[in-house]
Amino acid sequence: MKTFLLFCALIGGSSLGEILSAKGMQQIGDVSFRLRALSSSIWRMIRNPFLIAGVACLAVSFFSFISLLSYADLSFVVPLTAVSYITNTLGARFFLGERISKERWLGTLLVTFGVALVSLADKLEALLGLT
Amino acid sequence: MKTLLVLFIAICAQTLGDVFLTKGMKSIGEVDTLDPAKLFHIGVQVFTTPYIWLGILLLGIFFGLYLAALSWADLSFVLPVTAFGYVMNALMAWRLLGEHISPVRWMGTLVIFFGVAVVARTEQRTTKQETKSQ
Question: Which runs of E-coded beta strand occur in chain A?
């Protein structure tokens, strides 16, 4: 039960945090790296409610992650985080109004699958007797 | 092109930042206590270790550049593309740290690389710009 709640906080915090941060940055507008424009962007960023809420959610997600790591098996926790690529893309579609083309979905699913594969590598190899 | 360049620099900063943080934390040793006095002592050690400061600085640079990219590109573009960090990690671990990378991990890394390549070719911004007038 505790693990399930922490996992929900991890994925929910990450998705909500990413979406709120992206929303905030859309409001800030294109960041330029020229000094004067940059300092004005930074000044607006630290006062943007979406961005502040987003960073707070990402912090919640991060602390859920390290709490999980403190007692759960790494090879159990990390593959699950690959799911956040899908939840974040769905969030971007429904809350930010981004158009996700078939090509972008394909790439995102490949990334999700690849991340799960990398983090499950040890377990899979033990299973297949490769090590 | 600007987005991919900014994200590439961000990912380099993140990868290096993780390496320095790991180095710093390993030099402190395993945190295996919940005793407040000992935890405080470890906290002091953490913030007086130069490697950890360097790691935090690099991760800060990563986050700043990541947010900058989000200001002009889609979240659904930026997020999968930053997964290129897994590819960088595997290459760094292999070339610099001399770690053995198992076949399944190479396979996963390759799949991520293809996924990133596919997403990187899509249109970077599909929403209208909604800059608030100040």
Answer: none
DSSP3 helix / strand / coil % (chain B, rounded to 5)? 75, 0, 25
Which residue is associated with the tokens 């986050």? B63
Q: Closest residue of A to B113, CA-based?
A: A111
Token digits for B125? Answer: 């911004």
DSSP A82: T
**pTM of the entire predicted model:** 0.85
Strand locations in B1-134 (E): none
Q: Which helix (H) or strand (E) is A75 found in, with range?
A: helix A74-81
> What average pLDDT does the segment B121-129 reach?
84
Distance CA B59, CA B69 (A): 15
* pLDDT, tens only, A95-107: 999 999 999 999 9
For residue B133, what is the DSSP state? P
Residue A28 carries which side chain, given as an amino acid letter?
I
| Tokens 């941060």, residue located | A21
**Residue B59 sits at the chain A interface (C-beta within 8 Å):** no
Residue A71 Cα, gap to closest chain B Cα (Å): 12
Inform me whether the C-beta atom of residue B20 falls under 8 Å from chain A C-beta atoms: no
Domains in chain A: boundaries: 2-128
Cα angle A39, A45, A48 (rounded to 5 degrees) comes to 150
**pLDDT digit string (tens) for B64-105?**
999 999 999 999 999 999 999 999 988 888 887 778 888 999
